[in-house]
Write a structure and sequence with these properties.
Elements (H helix, E strand, L loop, with lengths): L6 E5 L7 H8 L5 E7 L4 E6 L2 H13 L3 E2 L2 E2 L1 E4 L35 H8 L6
Antiparallel strand pairs: 1-3, 1-6, 2-3, 4-5
Amino acid sequence: MTEPSKVIHVRNVGQEISENDLLQLFQPFGVITKLVMLRAKNQALLQMQDIAAAVNAMQFYSNVQPSIRGRSVYVQFSSHQELTTVDQNAQGRGDEVSDLFLVLLEVALCITYIELNTLMVSLGNI
């Protein structure tokens, strides 16, 4: 078994499973700071705010088979201790890299991807 980590590796993540589905599965255990969907591999990596939150999630799901939309998913600690992202524009320049993780729940207005993109592009690369 891999040693405990803030990062949880989720397998059998089908195309019908959304980022929001994964967030709902793990939010009861604490704050999720990063989520990476690996669609081509039917996998996802998510990072909890601390190891304790990840351990609590893993302990719970060792006794209860997690499933999303009727599909069993399999969870384990990742070999990564932390997920890092690299801004291609900042590589080699020493610029600070920052991330914005945006989750829209229960959107009351109809907003298209293009409108959201137009709004967010002013903050930097998307």
